[in-house]
Each structure stands twice: as structure tokens, then as C-alpha cells.
Amino acid sequence: MIAPTGFREYDARWRFPEQINLAGVEALGLSLGHQVRARGGRDIVVGHDYREYAGAVKTALVLGLLRAGLTVHDIGVALSPMAYFARTHLGVEAVAMVTASHNPNGWTGVKMGLVPPLTHGPDEMGELRDLVLGGRAEAAAGGRVVRQEGVAAAYLDDLAAGGPLAHPLRVVCACGNGTAGLFAPALLERLGAEVVPLHTEPDYSFPRYNPNPEALEMLHDMGRAVRESGADLGVGFDGDGDRCGVVDGAGREIFADRLGVMLARDMAAARPGARFVVDVKSTGLFSSDPDLRRLGARTEYWKTGHSHMKARVAETGALAGFEKSGHFFLPPHGYDCGLRAAVAVLRMLDRAGRSLGELEAELPRAFNMPTLSPACPDDAKYDVLARIVADLRGVDRLGGSPVARIVTVNGARVELADGAWALVRASSNTPNLVVVCESLTDAAHLRAVFADLDAIIRRQPEVGPYDQDF
Q1: Does the annotation mark 307 as catalytic?
Q2: Distance, CA of 450 to CA of 400 (rounded, Å)
Q3: How far apart are CA 109 and CA 395, in angstroms?
Q4: Cα angle vertex 307, ends 5, 263, to 5°?
Q5: Is pLDDT above 90 for 428?
Q6: Taking a C-beta distance cutoff of 8 angstroms, is the pair 232, 171 a contact?
Q7: Are the C-beta atoms of residues 195 and 207 closer than 8 Å to each other?
Q8: Rg (alpha carbons) of the chain, rounded to whole number
Q9: Distance CA 312, CA 291 (A)
Q10: Catalytic pick from 101, 287, 325, 439?
């Protein structure tokens, strides 16, 4: 049993065992192995997160990979970026990481890739889905398992390269009882930080909240811990360690796109003319910030989604990529790693000699709204979006501001002459649209921009209510 809906644009996720059983996971492994062999590969790295059933799911996946004739390099319990690291460390191109990331207990999934540092995008995922559902994958002889020891130690060595901080910091390390708790505190201690642990004991039931550093529930808990402990900042990680969230010394959340602007400033100071890739939900400061402009930095807005971002960073040779959800694609490897992002933040503060709150206050002010998700049926949302984009092409103003250009790589991001912008796109995973706006003027202008965009969206009868008020 394997539900077709689990094959998404760049991730594969199912409820287990309601939507996929172990036989279905084995079929997935056979088909993924077929994909690897069809491209001349014979080896694959496999790891799993800390969930009650992740070991069983991985075993079923490995059985399928063995039936396909692959040599499976099993790294055991791991973070997704640790599995990505193992590809280079072991000289193995393909990867299959069993994880449902920050999804609640009861979910499982696999993050897959064929060539470093990339993971499956829509083309590879569609091919895999057709192989599985069509039963077209071919078995082959020669499969075997190699248990790889020492990958976690090598991964942490790589992250800690450069030695301890010159100015040690007190840091709240929040893991939401996810897998990152096995690795993140030790890494921060190696950097010389005084670690204040927050829910670092892995517990697959997620007794407090799902480990999602984009969610206000986790960010607010991190802020409380920072204030109570007198820490300099807090860093938090999602369930499989590929995303990072941050709060400053006052316990205020610093959203990932604004943190990305700070990191881009720091990186561009050493590499004038640097190129960055950011997703279309991210702040317009990446293109309008005076400091980045002075340093000759160039920024491209690209499709939301970690696989899309990894591919674009690699394709363009960009120095780094930033996604509003907290995926950071940093040198030297270019894949998303929450722990590497945390290290980059600490080293930025070490170089600057100023607090995170002080660096954030130096950014131009921006007025943001929460990401809104109006309901729209899965079988209609892309047609609805196409009609909305067509209507937006006929608009010369939003919120009274002239339209400068429309970026259509992922829905429509309408950029205004005064630096404001408005985005509408279709969700990759759920039956809804995604709506985000930003103004550099004031809150009233932000609401005016949103109101004009919403009026255009509301022309489509299939669009339902928003998931929250604004």
C-alpha cells in the first residue's frame, strides 16, 4: 500500500501505516534503486531520524534497495544534512534519508537525491511515482549493506572547522525533542559556547510541540528560555536538523529571511559582488538593502522549496541561498543544514563584536504580515493561480504604489517601485494558495497592498477563507 498523494513536488511523506505500509516502503526502495542504477550508480547512503518506527521503515526501504542490486551505506540515526554530508565524505552520490522532518508523530517520509548536493525535484519525483505505481522497477543481483561508522564525528568536525569562538557566547539550544538533540549541543560546546539546553532529549512523541523553528510556539519558548537564562541568543532546529530558527538576547524572534540578510551582509563584506538566491517568500531587502547594494551583491528570487533552492544555487554558482522557512544553503557544500546556519550566525557575531539584536536593528525597517493560506482545492489551485497571474499582469498599482515588475518563477511576486511586494502562489503540499506581502513604508501601506491583492484573488470563486486573520 502506497498512497499516490505522498509523492509531492520535492518531498515524499505519508501517514504511517495508514497511507503507506512496509511493503509499500520496500516498493519505494526498489524503484529508487532502479532510478540510481539507470543513471549508472550502484551505491546509496541511507540514514533515519529518531522516531519510534523509523528503524522499521528504513529496514523496509533498504530491502527494496538491495533488491535493486545497490550497495547500501547505512549511517544509522542521523540528521538530513548529515546524510547529505556523507555523500561527499564516503564518495557516494545517491542518498535516501528516512524522515518526516517536523511533521507530527505518525508521519514518515524519505528525502532522496541522485547527485550531490541535489535532492529530488518534480521531474525525479514524478519519475519515481510512476515507477512505483506502475510496478515497472527492475530487480538486480549484488545488493549488500555496509555499516558506516564515524560519519557523525566527521560531520561535526567539518562544522567545527575554524576552531572555537574568540568571544564565547551563552546560547539556548532548542531541539523540540527532535533528532538534532543528539548532535547540536555537542557542536555548540565545541565552538566554546555555554549551552543552555532546551528540550534536547530526543522523544519521538514530541511531548511539547513539533520541532519547527518557523512556528511561533517554538520561537516563543526559545525566547522565554533566553530571557530566563540571560543567554546572548537562542538557536532552534527542526526534527531532522535541516532548518534553523533564531531569537535574539531579548528573546525576540528574528525571522529567517531577515537573518539571511544579515548573513548575506557578512558574507558579501568578504566577497564583494557575491551572488545569492532567495525564495519568493523572502523579504525585498535582499535586493534593496543599501549595504548589499554597496557591496555589489546580486540576488535572484527563486522557487520556494529546498530542492528547488539547492538546484538553483548549484546551477548559478551562487555563494549562498536563503529560504524564509529557515533552510540556509551555505558554503562550502551548498545543501541545507540548520547546524551550519547556527555556526554561521555565531561566527558572524564573533566577527562583528555586536549582539544579534544590534545587527538586526541596523537593517532597514520592513513591515510584514504572517503567511496566509486561503483554501483552494488541489485539483483547481494551479488553474486558479494562472487566472490570478493573468489579472495581475493587467494591474499597474497595488496599495497606491506603481508596479515595477512581476516575477513569475513561482506564482506571482509583484514588486512595487517603493520596495514593497505582494506574492500569491499555490502551495506545493496542501489544498490552498499562499499569500504574503511586505511594505517598507508603514503598516497602513502594507494593509493597502494586501487589500488590493486580496480583491484580485477574490475574483476566483474556488478560493475559500483564509487560515487566519490579518
Answers
A1: no
A2: 11
A3: 41
A4: 135
A5: no
A6: yes
A7: no
A8: 22
A9: 24
A10: 101
